[in-house]
Amino acid sequence: MSSPVLFLLGASHHTTPLELREKLALSSERLPSFHQTAAALPGMRELAVLNTCNRVEFYGTADSIDAVRRLRETFCAFQGFPSDAYATISHEATGLSAIKHLLSVASGLDSQMLGETEILGQVKDAYADAQSRKTTGPVLNRVFQKAFQYAKYVRSHTAINEGHISVANVAVDLALKIFGDLASTRILLLGAGEIGEKTAKAFQSRGAGSLTVASRTLGRAMELATTLNATALPWEHVAAHLGEYSIVVGSTAAPDVVVTLADASAAMKTRRAEPLFFIDLALPRDIDAAVARLENVFLYNLDDLAKIAEENRAARAAEVVHARALIAEKATALWKQVESQAGGSRPV
Amino acid sequence: MLQLTDRTWLWFAAACYLAGFALGTVAVIRERKLSRAMMYFIISAGFVLQTFGLYLRGLEVKGCPLGNTFELFQFMAWSAISLYLVIGATFRLSLLGYFTSVLATALTLVSLAFPAWDVSRRTNIFGGNAWIEFHAALALFSYGVFALLTLTALMYVLQVFSLKRQHLHGLFSFLPSIRELDHIGVRLLGAGVILLTASLGVGAVYWLDDTTTVNATKLAVTVAIWFAYAALLILRLRSRLVGQRFAWWIVALFVVVLLSLPLVSGSHSSS
Fold first, then answer.
1. Are A10 and A58 in contact (CB under 8 A)?
2. Which candidate in A90, A208, A293, A301 could, as Cys together with A182 as Cys, close a disulfide (CB 3.0–4.6 Å)?
3. How high is the pLDDT of residue A345?
4. What is d(CA A98, CA A9) in angstroms, rounded to the nearest whole number?
């Protein structure tokens, strides 16, 4: 029996702009028929399709590299995409290089947002899909299962996915440093702007206790409150009820501060032992900067949060070298296993 | 051949605490998560060795080893560690193991470094009275609680500093939340005050029988410390003293406690 080729073929966000990725992406309706067609190509032994918004990649084993060429032509024909254009944007690898790429992808190292974790779930889905179509065999089974294990290893042994890199999630992380658990926190959202809404959603997704929306237009506040499954508070009641909230998110378009030092001082008299966290996402600012001087009061504005997000992004980038070294080590070990599994017939 | 005396075992224990301190420092410098299990294991090993060392000393002095400054420091470190072994497992406070190892290293190494503190080994200082021995051990145990309380207060101050000054990396990234530290601080303060109150209550019964058994300095210092901690507890429960000011008071008071140890160590009547 001839040596099987372990291969990777695909295009990703690195070389393919969004408008081309849209054309390459396989819709959920078309994916099954393409998968069936591709798996039935002459010389194709195993096949898994990783189809996300940032990449369309094929992992598989074949009798020879000719089968990979046939796969490329079939894919371009299926999507109506010019072969010569695909050749300029696509990447191809075999053997150890293909394994290294899969480990990089699964670890989030190849992602647009470095270190993101969603990709691991997408790789798992791609493998499960291939399994359900019975297009995986001994090589892909081992490679994918080990890839999941090693991706977790890389994430836990590096800081590649530590520290959030979006302003909303950085704000949530800071709230966790103050309150530990968000279940008992009450959040007041001032203003009905988009960034405030995103931040409120980030808090809700991390288990925040309750959310109240206050806007200068009560109707808008009620509308957003309905969307967010929150309650609305009339704007004129904000100052009087400030002390009832643990986290106050400012995102209004007001020209002047809406929470003054006097407001915050009065609020703290009703919650002396409990911290109060102000997140000021507005420009111009909603919260008087002087409130940060108060005992048990913490204030972060948009610049502060953006700076932390940037520091986290830089810290992740600094871990890339370490992560790549781990991936190279693990990929080499896995490749040796694949080779020994193949016995006398050494995969390429 | 090395003679394994009580001090030898206490040196071994100090080495374990030092190892925990070194491990934690390396993890903090490298910004890697501290292995809580590893820290727990190292401190537990130190605790076992220290317990054995103090047991040998107890056999020698025929009672709880609280007869000189060396023994007081050792017993206080032992109390703090024993409490950490309970709290560390229950509350899973990250970094508390590291801070406890720092405290235990400091207390045990300092006590071992000054042989003069251990020159006079007073035997049977409680005159065979188990209640007096219980009173003394309970008082020192409450000091151990206050030692741990001081660590949580320091962690609180560091976390507030980190959040206010926006220094969120390194050591700061591993600190527990403000509210968690505050809650555990209040519970430790309450526990310490209850233990010290019980200790003073037991001691008072015997002191009233014979007021010459305790000198005035020891009595004044002990009552002042009890009063200060009780006042802090009341002020905190009534939200009159909160946040960083509360934390700094805790730290300052424990410094006073440490400085006053020599004053309270030598005043029991001994046989």
1. yes
2. A208
3. 46
4. 9
User: Hey, are the CB atoms on A176 and B164 less than 8 Å from each other?
Assistant: no
User: What's the rounded Cα separation, in Å, for the pair B69 and B72?
Assistant: 5
Residue ranges of chain B with per-residue pLDDT less than 70: 1-2, 89-94, 265-271
Using an 8 Å Cβ cutoff, are B121 and B68 in contact? Answer: yes
How many CB atoms sit inside 10 A of residue B229's CB? Answer: 25
Contact yes or no for A199/A281 (Cβ under 8 A): yes
Chain B residues with beta carbon closer than 8 angstroms to that of A307: 166
Q: What does the alpha-carbon distance between residue B256 and residue B220 come to, in Å, rounded to a whole number?
A: 13
**pTM: predicted TM-score of the whole model, two decimal places:** 0.73
Domain ranges of chain A: 5-160+319-342, 167-308
User: What's the pLDDT score for residue A142?
Assistant: 95
Q: Kindly indicate whether the ipTM for this predicted assembly is greater than 0.85, answering yes or no.
A: no
pLDDT recorded at residue B91: 63
Nearest to A178 among B163, B244, B245 (CB): B163
Torsion B200-B203-B204-B207 (CA) sign: negative
Shortest CA gap A285–chain B (Å): 18
Q: How confident is the model at residue A304 (pLDDT cuts 50, 70, 90)?
A: very high
Residue A348 pLDDT: 55
| Inter-chain CB proximity B168 and A177 less than 8 Å | yes
CATH superfamily entry for domain A167-308: NAD(P)-binding Rossmann-like Domain (3.40.50.720)
DSSP string, B118-144: GS----STTTT-HHHHHHHHHHHHHHH
A43's tokens: 């010389």
DSSP annotation of B64 reads -
What does DSSP assign to residue A53? S
Kindly report, residue by residue over A225-244, the tens digit of the pLDDT.
999 999 999 999 999 999 99
H or E element: which one contains B70? helix B69-91
List alpha helices for chain A, DSSP H.
Answer: 18-24, 31-39, 65-79, 83-89, 95-107, 118-132, 138-157, 167-179, 194-205, 218-227, 238-241, 261-269, 302-318, 320-342
Q: Which residues contact B243 (CB under 8 A, 6 or more apart)?
A: A273, A295, A296, B160
Contact B177 A315 (CB under 8 A): no
Specify whether the backbone of A335 is left (phi greater than 0), alpha (psi in -120 to 50) or beta: alpha
C-alpha A170, offset from chain centre: 14
